[in-house]
Please model this.
Amino acid sequence: DGDGDADGEGDADGDGDAYGDGDADGYGDGDTSCPEYMLVESAGITGALDVDRLVGVTHVDGDLFIVGSDLRDLSGLECLREVTGAFFLEDNSRLVNIDALSGLTRVGALFVSRNLRLTNIDALRQVRALNEVQIHDNDSLRNLDGLANVSSVTELSIVNNDGMSRITSEA
Model:
């Protein structure tokens, strides 16, 4: 794609970041840290332009929809810490990883469905409790290790994840 990055997306201007401002957080201020608190109400992401609107957001007050996107990863969401409502990660045929969500600590409910190339959800290791979890039809998902620290789930549904090799639980 000629921009010098490995993934075919992102650093079009060659300055080392995907935002075109020379730093990792998209603010152009040389600071790569996240703001202490930046809130948006429910949000939807279907492509890179939608992610750009959420760069630096730490809290979503409501639901977050990443549905039917053309994204390969979730770069730009590194500051996200909390989704008070449901987090829908569905029908993202190109999505390979969610590593940018490694700072996420609180989610009301989690719905992960039909992400054909997603191999793991390890980035969710800091989440401790979920009201509801539904993980369906993710053909490449190998395990649920990213949910190992969740100590409380009200409703759980895991169906048709053909690549899943194991589900373990500490009693």
About this structure: The longest strand covers residues 59-67. DSSP finds one helix and six strands in the chain. The two ends are 49 Å apart (CA to CA).
